[in-house]
Each structure stands twice: as structure tokens, then as C-alpha cells.
Amino acid sequence: MQRSLLVKNIGELTTFDSRSESMRVFKDVEMIISDGVIQEIGKDLYSSEFDIIDAENRLVTPGFVDPHTHPVFFDTRETEYEMRIMGKSYMEIAAAGGGIRSSVRSLRSADMNILNKRVKQRLDDFLQFGTTTIEAKSGYGLSPESELMSLRLLKELGENHPLDIVRTFLGAHEYPDEYRDDHEAYIDLIIEKMLPVIARDDLAEFCDVFCEEGVFSVKETRLVLEAAKFLGLGLRFHTEEFKPIGGVQLAAKLGAVSADHLTAITDEGIEALVEGNIIPILLPATTFFLGSDNYAPGRKMWDRGLPVALATDFNPGSSMTQSMPLVISIACLKLKLTPLEALQAATYHAAKSLLHDDRCGSLEKGKQADFVIWRFDRYQGIPYFLAYPSVQSVWKKGVRVWEMK
Ligand code: NIG
Ligand code: FE
């Protein structure tokens, strides 16, 4: 049996605390870990039985939970980025056959060994930013073969990787070229040939749809998600990113766990989130990366009592970043969340949005010892040190999985 660990000399331990139902900043505490699980957080816990982790008076926080990522793609899309910088919009590029559909063509013709290596590298890269759990979507295959391959790849890689990976099926990310003019047939394909295998082989916990004008209409989204729900999958939404078409109202009707993006949400939409008990996942790095000023009304949602969560939306088209600290910086500056709120959104609320808050998202007795030791001593440093290599070391279930050299 592994000896118990004691994390000592913690400068500040900042975490959500279930007893007070709020974020807490603890000073002079130590943390005991056995078998990857937190046994106790308190004062003067030293005993000679413990192996020691010396935090050297630095900040300790929970590892980030990134609840919205798209890591299964093959080529990157920097030429499209240049087109956007030169004035083309994201939707114009998509309508001209670029965007998601160009990633689909590249994934379908990918060399599987190289794909495997690239996705594995991306999983490794999440760790250096302090992320210890991600949600990861398929959605660049859009055929039974390549969607199932994407989810199986995530499953296989996840079995041997320190990151916890929560898989989401996003076969309804876009209509593939061969079904441009026959939406009904593509929806049938999802419902008959993809979802049943995903449920049978336990390939995903959630199903997501890009419910947006020009992509999946509210009616089409409903067909896919009702079938997913029937098979026991939880529901997520990409919606109200460009136009408020009623995606959040549908999310409330179907009992979705989260609705994501929401840059174009209306006040009625915010009320639908409240009534439907839906977690809004905001992706301010996407807004930034797209060069838009149209940020989601994060402050308003928070003040309305919604458990706002934050994610990177890591993908090759609209958010080429895996950095939760960067997301937190932008959330403070542009969504007007305070640093403490943004940290709560990137840890505890994010874990809730994946229905995994029983094991991650906060540092508390009984939870996994997934934590970050930072290069500074207080939580305000996370957004303040902008795009800085802020992480000293990352620990997953009590094991060091990344360290600043
Ligand atoms: O979440 N909005 C839709 N899907 C992705 C973008 C995917 C892409 O451009 O490849 C997103 O932003
Ligand atoms: Fe996304």
C-alpha cells in the first residue's frame, strides 16, 4: 500500500467548500492524501508516517475541470485563421466549405498512428495548464465509422492517461458534405447507426448538438437529443452562439445538463436556464479567438443565481487554446467575473456540469487529490499573470503528473 502523503507549507489553499457552500481561502492548513483520495484538510497534521510534499508557501487549488473540448481532430486550421484576420467571418468560411467540414475531410483521411499520437500529445498538454479532468467530444468524423473511431480513441487513450476524460458524442456538429441536402437522412443515420452502438459500448456519457441557424435547427436538434435521452445519455448543447434560435428553451424542455456558448442569449433565454436548472458553460476564449466583442453576459447570469461554468472549447477552428488560466483571465476582464468566481466556475461548477462533482472540482475530504501547486501564493495570481507559465506542479490522485522544469 502507498504511504499516506502530507502536503505541507501551503501558502494558501483556495477551493469550493461544501459545508459553507462557498469558495474559501484557507491559510496554514495541510492536506493528507491516502490512495489518491483526500483524507483530511486541517492544521498541524504532521506525523512521521507520512511522505511529504512541500508546497513551499505557494498557492494550492483544485485541478481545473475543462467541461467543453474538441481534441479529436487531425490537421490544424491556421490558414482559416489568417482569412478571418483579413475579414472573413466564421460563418462565411463555414458556408464556403471550410470550418468544421474541412476538419471532417482531414480526420476521415487521417493516418491512424499519427492521429493517435497527436491526440495523445494534446491530452498531455492539458496537464501543464493545471487541468486534471476534461470533457472531450467527437464531432469531426460525422460518419458512423469515424465518429465511433473518435470515441473509441478517447476511451483507449483515457485508460492509460492521468487526465480523467468524460466523453461526449457530437455527431450532430455539422452536416457532412454527402448529407448537405438531405438532413433527414443524416439524422436517421445518427439515430439508427451511431447512438445505439455508443450506448451499447458505453462510448459516451453525453450527447451534444450544434443547435444554431445554418447548422441543426431546433426541430432537428430535438430529434437527435430525444433519441439520445431515450438511450440514457445526458444532454449538452452548443447554442445561441450567433443567433438566439430557442436552443436554451429546448434544452430546458429536454432536461439538458448544460448549454454552452450563449453569446447571443436573450433575457428570456436566461430565465429558461434558471427554470430548466441548466448550467451555462461560457467559452470566452472562443469569443476572443474569433476577434469578436460579443461576450456572453456572464455577470448577469451569475447575478441571476446561475452556476456559471468556464471551458476552453479547445478546437482547431474557433479556440486554439488549452489554457484554463487564460480563460479565467478573459472571464475576469470581459465577463466581469471576479477572480474567485472565475476559479469556482473553472473547478466546482465545471465538475457539476459533468455530473462528476462527487469526485473532482474541489479539495475536500473524500474527493480525488487532483490539485495544482502554483508559482505564486494567492488565487488572484491566476488571472493576473496573463498568459504566463504559472503552474509549478500538477497532481492527479496524489501522483505528480506534471512539473515545471
Ligand atoms: O464549439 N461551435 C461549434 N463548434 C466548435 C467549433 C468547431 C470548429 O470550428 O472546428 C465550437 O466553437
Ligand atoms: Fe465547442
Structural commentary:
The protein has 15 helices and 16 strands. The protein is an alpha/beta fold and 405 residues long. The mean pLDDT is 97. Helix 7 links the parallel strand 9 and strand 10 (234-239). Strands 1, 2, 3, 4, 5, 14, 15 and 16 form an eight-stranded mixed sheet that branches. Strands 6-7-8-9-10-11-12-13 form an eight-stranded parallel sheet. The protein has helices at 78-85, 90-95, 100-108, 112-127, 144-159, 183-200, 218-230, 247-254, 267-276, 284-289, 298-303, 324-335, 339-346, 348-353, 381-384; strands spanning 5-17, 22-26, 30-34, 37-42, 51-62, 64-66, 131-137, 164-172, 206-211, 234-239, 258-261, 279-282, 309-310, 371-374, 391-396, 399-403. Helix content is 36%, strand content 24%. It has two domains: 5-62 and 361-403, Urease, subunit C, domain 1; 64-353, TIM Barrel. Helix 5 runs parallel beside helix 6, helix 8 (247-254) runs parallel beside helix 9 (267-276) and helix 12 packs across helix 13 (339-346). The protein binds N-(iminomethyl)-L-glutamic acid and fe (iii) ion. Residues 99-100, 103, 210, 238, 241, 286, 313, 315-318 line the site of N-(iminomethyl)-L-glutamic acid. Fe (iii) ion binds next to loops.
